[in-house]
């Protein structure tokens, strides 16, 4: 198609990085590229914590269930949904600001994700590898305290950045016909079944036959228990009351 589409379709998560540092000027350009993402009503409801302190990175790796590449990548960023800056700014104009609305939570979360994905695409276009770290939500209160996040700010995910020291295969995605629907929602169990076969082959070949599973089976741990049940109370304590 074109180079941009080819780049987007070649995404892999990288978990092994070389010792080469990302130049500061390049890192700043990646962040500027992130800022060019779409943002609801120009709110720009995000902040990024560049975690440089090695001890803090080790601690975050521990809090994120032992994901050691948090400590070994060139740069580690924590993307935060930030409703403090925009609401404080509006309040300074004399507005009677209402905080804690569900829509504010959604706007901040979506803004943060869009911004981060722009950073990721820019990074991969420059030959860097990335890995999103949703595991920081395993212990969001501890990480918020470590990063000194104020109320109305919460950590959405982390991002490892660095020069790749591995070359994994691109992981298959669901068939487009299973997610692209015309006019109305419809279920397509057949395409999901075919995808399960595809993923079973992928896992088997990647592990030399040591992983006997498929996509649907991999989902089971995510839905057979209350995943991160602490998040609702955590968000309320951070000022996202979901009113």
TrEMBL record:
Highest taxon of the lineage: Bacteria
Keyword Oxidoreductase: yes
Pfam families tied to this protein: Nitroreductase
CDD domains named in the record: NfsA-like (cd02146)
Alphabetized InterPro entries for the sequence: Flavin_OxRdtase_Frp (IPR016446), Nitroreductase (IPR029479), Nitroreductase-like (IPR000415)
Keyword NADP: yes
Domain Nitroreductase: start-end pairs: 9-163
Keywords: Flavoprotein, FMN, NADP, Oxidoreductase
NCBIfam families, A to Z: PRK10765.1
Family classification: Belongs to the flavin oxidoreductase frp family.
PANTHER family found in the cross-reference section: OXYGEN-INSENSITIVE NADPH NITROREDUCTASE
Protein name (record): NADPH-dependent oxidoreductase
Originating organism: Marinobacter zhanjiangensis
Lineage: Bacteria, Pseudomonadati, Pseudomonadota, Gammaproteobacteria, Pseudomonadales
């Amino acid at each position: 198609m074109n180079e941009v589409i080819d780049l987007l379709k070649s995404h892999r998560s990288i978990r092994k990085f070389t010792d080469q540092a990302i130049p500061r000027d390049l890192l700043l350009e990646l962040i500027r590229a992130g800022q060019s993402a779409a943002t609801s009503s120009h709110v720009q409801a995000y902040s990024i914590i560049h975690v440089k302190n090695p001890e803090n990175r080790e601690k975050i790796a521990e809090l994120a269930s032992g994901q050691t590449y948090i400590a070994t990548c060139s740069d580690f960023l924590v993307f935060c949904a930030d409703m403090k800056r925009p609401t404080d700014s509006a309040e300074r104009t004399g507005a009677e600001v209402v905080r804690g609305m569900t829509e504010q939570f959604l706007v901040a979360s979506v803004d943060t994700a869009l911004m981060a994905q722009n950073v990721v695409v820019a990074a991969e276009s420059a030959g860097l590898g990335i890995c999103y770290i949703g595991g920081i939500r395993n212990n969001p209160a501890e990480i918020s305290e470590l990063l000194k996040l104020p109320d109305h700010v919460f950590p959405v995910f982390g991002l490892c950045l660095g020069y790749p020291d591995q070359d994994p295969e691109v992981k298959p995605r669901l068939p487009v016909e299973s997610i692209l629907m015309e006019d109305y929602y419809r279920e397509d169990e057949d395409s999901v079944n075919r995808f399960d076969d595809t993923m079973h082959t992928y896992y088997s070949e990647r592990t030399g036959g040591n992983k006997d599973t498929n996509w649907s089976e991999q989902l089971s741990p995510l839905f057979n228990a209350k995943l991160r049940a602490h998040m609702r109370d955590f968000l309320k304590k951070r000022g996202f009351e979901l009113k």
